[in-house]
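re: ur question from yesterday

yeah so i grabbed the chain u mentioned. its 230 aa long if i counted rite. heres the sequnce exactly as i have it in my notes:
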Amino acid sequence: MSDVIQVLVADDQTLFVSGIEALLLYSGTCVVTKTTRDAKETLAVLSTLKVDVILLDIGLPDQSGIDTAKEIRAKGIMTPILILTNHDSKDLVLDAIDAGVQGYMLKDTDAPTLFMAIMTLAKGGRFLDFRLHGFMMDALVESKHGVKKSTCDTYTSDHYALTKREIEVLRLMVSGYDNDEIAHALVITSKTARNHTTNILQKLGVPNRTKAVVLALNEHLVNELAAVPS
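ran it thru and got these structure tokens back, copy pasting raw so excuse formatting
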């Protein structure tokens, strides 16, 4: 991957695509290398053009973005795919994940979150729009791991004795931030971020970040958390 992230945008809404091109150019870290309007053109372009991230609309004129993602993967193209859509259906998100996409984001997101999603995918990570985390975690835990959501009373952050700062850190962990990104967002040192993370794991009684995120979402702790710092 070069210093500037090369992006292909597959979407038939001209005004939306123009806005994405302007936003990414302004970012200084990403650039739209190519735009396509349908699945057929997207597949043809990707057979010869290498990019770092694909932004894919879920409603292309000739077929769905999910089916297009399946065809991309069937051709052996493993470029990270970020679905951009207005649809927040749980079933669509699950279908997209099954199709091999790495990210799913609603189109009304803000620019900084879009930049972060693209950068996360370009680095090999995954990104799910935070507004989808609550119901998606329940669905994923149940359908993928056979763990049903507990029917007993859920706990609040007070039960776990989390401090206000630890709640902020936990929110960022749920959003996919690593310790360095948490440090940057909260204007603290990486060491302090690591200490907060360690304390959170101890208070929640879990061995790693993944289980902390699952617990936070399953117990609806994320519903209490403050907005991610800008």
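noticed a couple things. The domain at 164-224 is CATH 1.10.10.10 (Arc Repressor Mutant, subunit A). also The beta strands are 5-10, 30-36, 53-57, 81-85, 103-106, 127-128.
anyway ttyl
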